[in-house]
Amino acid sequence: MAPIQPLALVRTRERAPENLAAWSAQCWQALAAGERLLTLFGRADGEKETMVTAVLLNDTGRLRVLRGRGKRHASFPSLTARFPAAQMFERELWEQTGLVPLGHPWLKPVRYEGERQERMAEYPFFKVQGEEVHEVGVGPIHASVIEPGHFRFMCHGEQVHHLEIQLGYQHRGIEDLLLRRPPFALAPLIETIAGDSSIAYAWSYCAAVEALSGAQASAESELVRGVALELERVAMHLASLTGLATDIAFLQGGATYGRLRTAIINACMRACGSRFGRGWLRPGGVRFAIADAMREDLLRTLGAFARDFAQVNALMLGARSVRSRFQDVGTVGAIAARDLGLVGVAARASDIAFDVRTTMPGPLYIRHPIALVTQESGDCWARMKLRMREIDESVRWLTHVLETQGSLLANAMPASPGPLASDMLCISLREGFRGPVVHALETGADGRLIHYKVQDPSLANWFGLAFALRNNEISDFPICNKSFDLSYCGNDL
């Protein structure tokens, strides 16, 4: 049996869509059977109809695609009341297409795109009633270089009863822009959707257009892509750890994690010319192989890094002040994490065993396995410790590949993709440092792209942050926020 790929191809002209009610019923049955909803989205289908797509993951690790079609502004039975993981997807579907999920308990815009863009002041915030209840509004403008977002805390004294997060201030119309350029010239734009996940976004895009064009990236190119992705994971987890240490004034950690991150992103710059890996991956392969000199450079960097990283982790994990600040703060239990559809670090810190690299490994991670890492407690401590352990596992994987696969890494030659196949839908996933980055590309009868859907893992996780803060003190928000470390621009598109 072929390795389970983080990718699905559907011949759309051979797959007749259901009506909306039947499609919703199919999704309901799949979710009730325990399948995971990875994404749900829609697009205009002519002038009068809307096509909807749900992508689910079953217990064998394979993707299943369910499609429906209905009149513009029609309705369908909402999934959210029974399956809360669908709530953000259905809200986005309503905002982008006008389809109404009947019975949705929380129907409001996700990012105020399109006609609603000038109406953000009308956002219907949830209200907590009571004589001693007060509201605290933070943002959208924040200090320093923090991205814009509004946080509305409903508090009783210092305790937060409810947090509502309003985003959308950075909406750039990315999905429309992706349809205005030739499909093989999209990488520079893809890499800037969420700049700290440039490699994950670029690889998901490249895998999709390669599948649609019938091109096969070489094993050598895939290996280099894996190295790039794990370097990105290490660097960005270090940025999160820097923030966590700084937020509690643990200066040894803040200074050291920041220094170590610089070492990793500088190594990335030496490998491809960009500290964030931009320009490294392109459809068909990679622009820069890893020659022996670069391979030795990376091994020296990782060796020195691992020693210092172990030392600062020991300080961080052993400090009573750190434990006091992070343990039992911002807790999301396993049941809540599963019900809310959390992904990535936020899910694995709550003992949800889902990682694209192990669930849908493909040939690369079959040949060079990477271990699944989880924590059980679901609090800020768990999210911090999970990042430390994932860095250790990424460094182990990188060291193994760099030590044993030198000839392959040095000979990564790009393939030449042909035109995209007509009437096809491709779903492509890659596990970024926050979680799965999802790209969905659909072609029409002439082979041109008619829809490009992008999904950052933050879309599913922002509500998890709001849930984590319930019954915590408002002063716990900065560390809860940094422990999730979600993307504003990735959500806002």
Give the topology, please.
Layout: E1 7-11, E2 18-19, H1 20-32, E3 36-45, E4 49-57, E5 63-71, E6 75-77, H2 87-97, E7 100-102, E8 133-138, E9 150-156, E10 159-166, H3 174-177, H4 187-190, H5 198-213, H6 219-247, H7 251-272, E11 281-282, E12 285-286, H8 292-318, H9 320-326, H10 334-340, H11 344-348, H12 356-359, H13 362-367, H14 380-404, H15 406-409, E13 424-431, E14 436-443, E15 449-455, H16 458-468, H17 477-484, H18 488-492
Parallel strand pairs: 2-5, 6-7
Antiparallel strand pairs: 1-13, 3-4, 4-5, 8-9, 9-10, 11-12, 13-14, 14-15
Helix pairs in contact: 5-6, 6-7, 6-14, 6-17, 7-8, 8-14, 14-17
Please characterize this protein's 3D structure.
The chain is an alpha+beta fold. The chain is built from 18 helices and 15 strands. The chain has a four-stranded antiparallel β-sheet with strand order 1-13-14-15, covered by helices on one side. A four-stranded mixed β-sheet has the order 2-5-4-3. β6, α2 (87-97) and β7 (100-102) form a beta-alpha-beta unit. The chain is globular, with a radius of gyration of 22 Å. The relative contact order is 0.15.
Through-space gap between termini: 38 Å
Mean pLDDT: 95
Number of helices: 18
Query: What integer value in Å does the Rg equal?
Result: 22 Å
Fraction of residues in helix? 40-55%
Q: Which strand-content bin applies to the residues?
A: 15-25%
Q: What oligomeric state do these chains adopt? A: single chain
Decide which structural class fits the backbone. alpha+beta
For the sheet with most strands, the description reads: 4 strands, antiparallel
Give the CA-based shape.
globular
For the biggest β-sheet, the strand order reads: 1-13-14-15
According to DSSP, the number of beta strands is: 15
Q: Which spans have pLDDT < 50 for at least 5 consecutive residues?
A: none
